[in-house]
Design goal:
By secondary structure, the protein is mostly helical. Helix content is 76%, strand content 0%.
Length: 356
């Protein structure tokens, strides 16, 4: 029964992300594909959740307080999103709207959908990673639910910490599952494995789809073929510690989201900026992804700003002239991660200690 309820939560989460993503696109006045809109909504959700959660985590509030405050904030955000969409009156539409699909395109789209379903099934049914990370991350969530705390108890031993471990506490990803588990009564293990695991697969393919549509100039046939081939390679390319294996074996972990969602999405947006660095919508979306990257995974702490920095240097090298506006926008996008990095380094040096 918990699995059935988890499916409902997954569907509800997708609807929330889609609504938030659509409102963001309306405000920025651009028309991405529906899968990209879903990704935008996902990052917008965690960008807002991080602000609320970190304030409560660092002040050592109870988990139920986070649940209550976040539900109120989320409700207000969804109402605001509905108002924004209603005022738009359908003026901002996805670029595929109104186009008819040929029979060949329908067939390829159906094959792509079937491939995505098979990948979701593989990621869940063939999940066999039961290592230390599995026990620790799930332990952090179940312990938080049982004790009504956040990062106060160690996830593996269950012992109370002397101080908050900011290596984990600076990211709110797992506490999102914890508060849902607390209010629904569904095991955090089930929620993380099925809801977070399947969502990771869906978002991964949404990024691949969006990237392919950009590269192939909105050619649905070529995009469907590429996504299907990518899925086949992911399932059968059995090499450990690749992004594909993180997706299949450890899709419930923040690391898997970093490898398969955050970094590919960052690369996709950098590709768009390489083509058109003047488009403010691209910069707005990149800033959103960078801002939410640490909330989704601490592994993004250095990787995301590194990617942005490499793009800036490459752009300046190719054009062989200083572009102050480009550099400034890039630095602004990197600043959230830089701020997190400063806090984290202060913690590792012992300069910043949040006692329990």
């Amino acid at each position: 029964m918990q699995v059935v309820f988890s499916i409902g939560i997954l569907v509800l989460s997708i609807c929330i992300y889609s609504l938030l993503g659509r409102a963001f696109c309306v405000k920025c006045r651009f028309c991405p594909t529906v899968p990209e809109r879903l990704c935008i909504g996902f990052f917008l959700y965690f960008a807002a959740f991080q602000i609320v959660a970190e304030a409560l985590i660092l002040t050592k509030q109870k988990l139920h307080v986070l649940g209550a405050v976040w539900m109120a904030v989320l409700a207000a955000g969804l109402v605001a999103a509905l108002v924004i969409i209603k005022k738009d009156k359908g003026q901002t539409r996805a670029e595929t709207g109104g186009r008819t699909m040929s029979n060949g395109a329908r067939l390829l789209a159906a094959l792509m959908a079937a491939a995505v379903f098979c990948e979701c099934a593989t990621a869940v049914l063939m999940q066999r990673n039961i290592g230390w990370d599995f026990a620790y991350y799930i332990g952090n969530m179940t312990t938080s639910v049982a004790t009504d705390t956040m990062y106060v108890y160690d996830g593996s031993s269950g012992l109370m910490r002397s101080h908050l471990e900011l290596r984990y506490a600076l990211s709110s990803f797992y506490m999102n599952t914890a508060w849902i588990s607390q209010i629904t009564g569904i095991s955090a293990l089930v929620l993380q494995k099925y809801v977070a695991g399947i969502l990771c697969v869906l978002l991964t393919n949404a990024v691949v789809y969006s990237f392919a549509m950009e590269v192939f100039h909105q050619d649905l046939k070529k995009t469907a073929v590429l996504v299907t081939i990518t899925i086949v390679l992911t399932i059968f390319w059995d090499v450990y510690d690749t992004a594909a294996q993180f997706l299949l074996l450890r899709n419930y972990e923040a690391k898997a989201y970093c490898a398969n969602v955050v970094l590919p999405m960052t690369g996709y947006l950098l590709y768009r900026l390489w083509k058109n660095s003047r488009a403010i919508q691209n910069w707005a979306e990149l800033f959103l992804v960078a801002f939410a990257s640490v909330a989704v995974s601490m592994s993004s702490l250095v990787l995301v700003p590194a990617l942005i920095g490499i793009m800036l240097l490459a752009q300046l090298f190719v054009e062989r002239q200083w572009d102050g506006a480009l550099v400034l926008k890039g630095i602004v996008c990197m600043m959230p991660n830089v701020c997190y990095l400063v806090v984290y380094l202060a913690f590792t040096r012992g300069w910043l200690v949040v006692e329990v």
